[in-house]
Amino acid sequence: xxxxxxxxxxxxxxxxxxxxxxxxxxxxxxxxxxxxxxxxxxxxxxxxxxxxxxxxxxxxxxxxxxxxxxxxxxxxxxxxxxxxxxxxxxxxxxxxxxxxxxxxxx
Length: 106
Known about the structure:
The protein is an all-alpha fold. Helix content is 78%, strand content 0%. The protein is built from 7 helices and no strands. Helix 1 (6-14) packs across helix 2. It is globular.
């Protein structure tokens, strides 16, 4: 994925062994259950929004698109959090997602 956040890319370069272990843990978690890649990325997108992490929201937006999610599915994923996360958190996440979707189209 070419849209990885710069801090993540720097972490990968500066700490290759830790990065490798981190990626293996993520792969093991992904393969531990029945969810498909698109569903996993939409869930991770929601968790990133809950964490108020702009770079993670953008990263998982790109990953969700690559896994076959539509812009409408991504937006709906975030809207589901409006009562739990709060209006301002969801609005911020939606703006970060729109930036990522526009960048992904380029």
